[in-house]
Amino acid sequence: MKAQWVGYAGAIGGWLIGLGITFALQRFMDPVHLPLVGIGFVVGIAALWGRIPGAIAAVLMTLSYDFFFLPPLFSFVVSTQHFVSLVVLLAIALAVGQLAARLRRQAIAARTRQENAQATAQLARDLTGAVTAKQAVEITKNRMREIFGFVPEISLDPNDTEGATGEMVLPLKAPRKVRGSMRLSRSAVAPEDQALLETFAAVCALSLERIHFVEVAHDALLRMEGEKMRSHVLSCLSHDLRTPLTGIVAQSGRLALGLSGNGTVRTESVELAGVADSLHRESSRMADLVENLLELARLQSGGVRLRLDWHSAEDLCASALRHREKFLADRKLSVDVDDRLALVWCDGVLVERVIVNLLDNAHRHTPPEGGLRLWARPTSTGVAIGLDDQGPGLRTQVESGETTVGGIGLSLCRAIARAHGGLLEVSDAPGGGARVELRLVQTQRAPEPPAEEVSE
Amino acid sequence: MNEARTVLVIEDERAILKLLRDVLEDEHLVVREATTGRMGLVEAASRRPDLVVLDLGLPDMDGKDVLRDLRNWSDIPVLVLSARGAEEEKVVALDLGADDYLVKPFGVPELMARLRALLRRREGATAAKGPVYKFGDATVDMVTRFVTKAGVEIHVTPVEFRLLSELLRAEGRIVTQRHLLREVWGPGHEANTHYLRIYMGHLRRKLEDDPARPRHLLTETGVGCRCLCERAEEP
Questions:
Q1: With contacts defined as CB-CB under 8 Å, which chain B residues touch A308?
Q2: ipTM score
Q3: What are the φ and ψ backbone dihedral angles of A6, each rounded to 5 degrees?
Q4: Least packed by Cβ within 10 Å: which of A206, A289, A340, B116?
C-alpha cells in the first residue's frame, strides 16, 4: 500500500521537476524537442516505481506539454496537426514507460528468485547436519525466523492437519509419507512468500524422512548386533554345558554298566549299581532338559530358519520312538499312523523333537501301567500328530498346580508349533487321560514320484 | 584277530578325551590322542590307526577340513562327534567321507556299537563275502536280485531294489539323502526328498515286521537313512 503512494507521489514529483526543466530549456530549444525531456522522466519514473506511476507521468507529461508549450498556450485546445503529434507522443511515453516498468519487475523477480533459492539451499545445508527430528525442527524454525520474520509451529504428528480459523497448515510431505505439519498465522504470510514456504516445508519433510530412515537403519543394526551376540552366547553356553554333561552321562553310564553288566554283580554293590543307574538316568534327563532349554532359547531369540522338507509322519514317529526305546521299554505303546496321511512339509528335526518331548511328558505324568498311543492323522487343514495317555488327565495336572502344563518340554513343543505357524493343543483323550497334539497347517501336497517303467 | 588295534581320538576337550580313552581301553583298544586338528593329521599319518574319532569342533581348524585332508590319502574309518541340532554339519561331514556320526551327549553302549561296527567292517573288508545280505528274517541277493522275507519271495520294483542295494552296500553305515537320491534317481533329483520318503515307506511295508516301528530300515531325520544288515560269508 505504502509503496503505491510513494510511486504516485514520485510520479507527480518527477513530472513537476520535468516540467520545471522543460520551462528552463524552453528558451534554447525548439518546442518540437521539448517532449524528449518529459519522455526521459517517464522512463525514470516507470523504472523506479513501476507501471502505474509511469502511466500517470506519461499522461501528465502529454497534457502539460499541450497546455504550456503548444499554441494556443495555456489552453487544451489543439489544432488537428498538433493533436496527432500529441497522440503519438502519449503512445510513445506510455510504451517506453511500460517497457521500463517491465524491466524493473523482471529484475526484482530475478532477485527474489535468487534470494529464495539461496534461502532454500541454506536451509537444506543446515538440515544435513541434523541427526534428530527435534534438531531438524529447530533449524527450520530458525531459518524461517531469518527469512520470513515469523516462527511457525511444527508438529511431528502426521495426522495433525486441522488448523484453527486464520491459521494456515502446511503438511510436511515427504516422498514416502506425511511426516508432520507446519502451522502459521495466515495474516503473517505474504502471498508472494507462499511458494517459498511450501519449498521450506518440503525440504524440512525430506530431512525428517531421512532422519527417520537413519533411525530405522540404526535400530536394525542394533537388533542384528543383539541377535549376533545372543547366538554367540547361546553357542558358547551350549558348548560349555554339553561338554561336562557328555562326560557325566557317559561316565555314569559306564559305571552302571560296569556294576551291573555281565551278571557279575557282587552282593555288596547291588546298592551301588542302583545308585550308578539312577545317576545315569538323572544325568541323561538333565542333558535332555538342557537340550530343550537351549533349543527353546534358540527359537525364542528369533532368527531361526526352519529347514523345511518333506517328511513322513511314520518316519518321524519311528525315529522319535527309537530315541526313547529303552526309556519306554516298560510301557504299553501303540503307534497308529493313518494310511491316508500324505507327506508332511515341516522341519523334521524339530517335529521329531516335539514327539520325543510328548513321549517324555506322558512318561513322567502317567503311572507305569498306563498305555500310550502315538497317532498321526490328516485334518481338514493339514496334519495332527498326537499322543494319548491313560494318566490322570489334564484337569488333574492343572489342578495340582502345574499352571504351565508340561514345563520346558511342552514350552519347546509350543515354540516349535508356533515357528511352523501351527499350534499345540492339549485336551482330554477319548478314553480318559490327556491328549497333546501338534497341529500343522499344510498348504501343498508332495508331488508323486515318477511312475516306474514295468520292465523286469 | 585281537591283536591291539589303534584308535586315534582327535578331541580338544579333556573331559571327553578322558572319557573316550576310558571307554576304548575297556575294549582293549590302543588309544592315541590329539587335541588339535593339525596334530591329529600328523598322528593319523604316522601311527596309521584303525579308526579315527573326530570332534567337529576343534580349536585350530574346522573338523570338516581335517576330514577333507585325511580323505585325500586315507580311507581309515572316521567316526564324527557333533552337537545335537547341527544336522547340516553332519551331512557335510558324511558327504566328505565320514563313516558315521555320534551326537553329544552320547551313551557308552551307543558309542561302542558304532565303534565295533566300524572296526568289524574294516576287518571284514579283506574277508571273502558273498552277495547275500541279511537283516531280520529278510535276505537280499545282490546278484540274482532275489528278495525274501521269512522264506517267501517278495517282489520289489527296480527303483526299490536300487534304493535297497545302496543302503545294503553301506553295511549299516548311514547314507545321506542327497547321496541316495543321486544314486537311485539320478543327478538333478537331490532335492526330491519326497521320493525317498515314499520309497522307504514301501520297503518298510514289504520287509519290516512292523513298518511303524522299523528295526532295520531306519531314517535319521535330517541326515539320511541306514539299513542295519549283515553280509553273509561266502559259503
A1: none
A2: 0.88
A3: -55, -45
A4: A340
